[in-house]
Fold each of these.
Amino acid sequence: MKNRRPSILLIYTGGTIGMKQDPDTLALVPFNFAQIEQEVPELKKFGYAIDFHSFDPLIDSSNVTPQLWIELAELVRENYVRYDGFVVLHGTDTMAYSASALSFMLENLEKPVVFTGSQLPIGMLRTDGKENLISSIEIAAAMDGNGRAVVPEVCVYFETKLYRGNRTSKYNAENFRAFQSANYPVLADVGIHIKFNRQNISYPEIWGRELKIHTALDTNVAILKLFPGMRKEVVESVLGAEGLKAVIIETFGSGNAPTQSWFTEAMKQGVERGLVILNVTQCQAGSVDMDAYETGVALKRAGVTGGRDMTTEAALVKLFFLLGQYSETEKVNEFLVKNLRGEITAC
Ligand code: ASP
C-alpha cells in the first residue's frame, strides 16, 4: 500500500491559471491543456500517475452556473475509485462558491478535492500558478500509512495555505494571497514542508462509506445586502420576487438590521408567506448573534434564522442544496443551522 504510485485527476474548468500570452498580440489566451506538461515540466518529476480532463468550452469563472458544479460532481463520482485525489483548476472569481457547492454535493467524501487557480497565468514568468498547482497535486496525493487521504475534504489551496473550501472567500483582486478563511483555521501551511494541521481537518467517523452525490439544486434564492438608507420598495421587491424561496440578508456587525417597523414587518410577512430568511453578517469575520442587540432580537422575533459564522458563499449554496432536498421550510431551517460539512461553527 505504502509504495503505490498515487494517481491524480487534474481537471481544468477555465480561468487565468490555464492561460499564456500570445507572442504576437500579447493577449491572454487559454493554452491547450493536453500540453500542460510542456508548460509545467515539473509535473513529470512527481512520479505520480496524473491524468487530465479539460472542460470544453473553458469557463471564465464569472460565468459559472450550478451546471458546472453538477458536471464536476459527476466527474468525481465517475472517477472516484480510479484516483486518489482530484485537483480542480478554476478561476478565482467564483472559486469559493464552487468549492462550497461541491462540499455539500459530495457526501461521504474520503478523497481530497483541491480547488486552485492563480492570479497570474501559468504561462507568465512571475506566475503564482505553478506553485499553486504543484502544491495542490502534492496535497491531493498525500496519504497516511494506511493509504487514507490526509485531507479528505473539498478544499482551496492558494499561496501557501490550504483552506476548507466552504470557509473561503475571495477577498483580494490583486494580491497573490487572494483568499481568506476568516472563521476557520487553515488545514495546511506550505513552506519548506507541507505542515498538515490535522486537528483542523475533518475525517470520516467511519471509513469506507459509499460516495453519494447530490445534484438537485434549487436556485430560488436572493441575497439582500443591507445599507443605511435602504428603501422599503427595494426590500419588498426582492422579497416579493416570483418563485423566491429563500433570502439571505447580509446584516451589520453581529447580525443587526434596522428596527424600523416597515423593515421588521417585511421580514415577518416574508416568513409567514413561507420564505426562509437567513441572517449572515457583512463583516469578513465573526458571527451572527441575534440575541446581542435589540436590532438583532427584532429579526429573531420576526422568524429570521441566524447563519452564525457561515460565509455568504457557503450560505448561498447550502440553501441551493437544502431547497433541492426538502420542500418544507421547517426542514430547511432546521438543517441550515446544523453543521453539515464543517461550514458553520456549532454554538
Ligand atoms: N476572471 C478569472 C476567473 O475567475 C479570474 C481568475 O481566474 O482568477 O475565471
Amino acid sequence: MDDNKKLAEFLFPHIDKTPDYYEKLFPQRNLKEGAKVCRFSPSPTGFLHFGNLFTCFVSYSMAKSSGGVFYVRVEDTDQKRSVEGAIEVMLKGLSVYGIVPDEGVIGDREETGVYGPYYQSDRKDIYQSFAKALVEQGLAYPCFMTAEELDEIRASQENESIKGVWGKYARSRDLSYEEICQRIENGEAWTLRLKSPGTLEGKCYFDDMIKGKIEMPENVQDIVILKSDGIPTYHFAHVIDDHLMRTTHVVRGDEWISSAPIHLQLFKLLGFKAPKYVHVAPIMKEENGGKRKLSKRKDPEAAVTYYIEQGYPSESVNEYMMTLANSNFEDWRRVNKDEPLSKFPFNVKKISVSGALFDIAKLSDVSKNVVSKMNAKTVFDLSYEWAKEYNKELAALYEKDIDRATAILNIDRENKKPRKDIAKWSDIYDYISYMFDETFEPDYELSGNADSALALDVLKKYKDVVNLDDDKDAWFSRIKDLCSEVGCTPNVKEFKANPDAFRGHVGDVSTIIRVALTGRVNTPDLFAITALLGRETVKNRIELAIKHYEEEE
Ligand code: GLU
C-alpha cells in the first residue's frame, strides 16, 4: 500500500464507503431535456432576509419554469450559527410566497426525496468518504497548524497579494506518513486541507448566467475541507452536495463569486461536472444619492417578516420581486393584466448584474394594483386572517358584521376602474374607520368653495331630503336639486364660466355632505357609503355637523 492509501486508512478508519458507492446511490435524475434542478440552502439562522427570499425566488422560478426540481438543503455545519426552530420559521416565510420545495427539508427534521439526507449535519460520512478518496490520491492532507500559527502567517503576509495557506506557508503539506501518525497519536488537532494544484499563473474561467464570462486567477490556497471536528467547510459541502443532489444550477448570493475558483477546482479534482452558476447581486437601496445594500440592521423591510406583519399580500410581494428580477415584466403585465405570474417568461439573464434597487413606494404601487383586482370577499378573507394575528382592532370591527364589512370593502371594487387605495392590510383600519361609530373621527374642515355658511344651508336642507331608499340616480338628483336652492349650480362648467354668480357647484355640495358623513374630503363612492352607514347614523352625523357649523358661524 502506498503512503497516501495508508494515510487515508489511518485518518478515516471508520469510512467504508467509496465515492463510487454514493455515485450509484444518487444517480443522475431522470428529467426531461432542459429541466433545471435548483436549490435553496439556508443556514438555520432563523432570519429570512428579503435578499434571501429574492435569491430563492429566482432559484424556484428557474426550476419551476423549466419543469425541473426545486429542493431545500439545510447548511447547518456551523453549529454556532444554528438557532432552534429556525427552519420552520424560514420554510414558513417561503411558503407565504408560494415557494414550497418539491424535495429536501420540508419541516423541522422532516425531509422528503431520495437524494438526502438534506441536513448537512447528517452527511458527515458522505463528506468524509470523498475526503478519504482525495487523501488516497495525494490531493488532501492533514494540517497541524494552530490558530496562533495561522495568525502569525497572516501577519507576515502584508505584502502578499494572496493570503492564507499556500506555497511556503503550507507548513504541513509535505509531512511524512510517519510524522503525521505520530502527531495524531500524540493528540494534536488537525484539519484536512486540499493540496491545491493551482499555480500563480493559472486562470479560472466560467460563464455566470447573470454576470457573464468571468476570468479569475485560479485557486492556489490549500483551503480547509474538513474542520478539526471532521465537519466540512462550506466549500467542500457545496461541491459534494450539489454534485450528489444533481443540482444543475447553483443560484446563490454573489458574495460567493470570489470563492468560485476554489469550487471549480474542487469539482475538477473530484471528477465532477460543475453546475452552472447564477450569482445574484444583493438588493440595493438608494440613500443620499448613493446606493447601499438593503441592510438587516438599518432597514426594517430587509426582514421578510416585515411584509407579513404589515400585511402585504403575498401576491403583491411576488409581483414586486418579478419587477426587481426582470425589467421587462411590467410591460408584460400591462398587456397580460389577468395572467398568473407563472405565465411570465422569466429570464434569468435579465437579472441586474449590479443589484436590483429596492423601492418601497414601488412595492406599494404594485400592491395597490394587485389588491384593486381582488374581489371584496378575497380582500375580506385575506385581511381578516391577517387582522386576527396582527391587528385585533380591525378584526373586532369586522366581527361586528362580516357581511357589512365585506360590503364596505366592495365600495368602488369589482368594476372596470377599481380604486387603488389599499396597498397592505394595515391600511384598511384607517381606510374604513369612519364607517363605524366607535372609530369615526369628525373633522369638519372643508375644501374648494365650501365654507361653513354654505355647509349649514346645505346640511339643513339635505337632512330633510336624504332618503336611504333612493337608488344612485335618485340620490344624485336630490343633491343636484339642492344646489339651486342654496345658490349653487349642479353644472360645474356653468360655475367655471361664471364663478361670481354662484356660491359653489355640485362638487362643493357633495364635499359638504361627504365631510359631514365621513370626516374626510376624499372617500370612495359617497352614495354607497351613505347606504352602508344607515339611516340613523346619517341623520346623527348631519346633525352633529350642523351643530359644529352653527357654533363656528
Ligand atoms: N448556506 C449559504 C448561506 O446561507 C448558502 C450559499 C449557497 O446557496 O450555496 O449563505
